[in-house]
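Hi R.,

Here's the chain you asked about this morning:
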Amino acid sequence: MVNFWNSLSVKRKIFSLVILPVLLILYLAFRQVTTLNTQLANLEKVEELVVFSQVLSDLQTKAHLARLTSDPVETTVQYDRLVTLSESLFSGEELEHLQGLIADYQESITSISDAQDAEEKREIVEWQVDTFGQIL
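And here is the predicted structure, written out as tokens:
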């Protein structure tokens, strides 16, 4: 190895001493960028989950108000937003199951205002609470 190094010209020695550290720096920088991109993607997914939770919370608030007043409540905007967010967060069977739960939850909210007596309303509220828990 020493013989090989001694046999190289000064130009090649300097070139080797410059290129090897530059290549190492480029490799480490690429790894760092890749790691940061992965962390950013994970952070964006967490942000979408937070928004999903906020929209679900808003929908639950409206559902609670509907139980108190027995008036129909407009929840189409929140429902559509939940469906859109679920499509970006989940896939496959998870997505189908979650969208089914969201549809059930929406139906339970609208059914409360149609309830005829207190017992029916209580059953619908239990269904709503159960569905909400499964969504979470």
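One quick note: The chain has five helices and no strands.

Cheers,
M.
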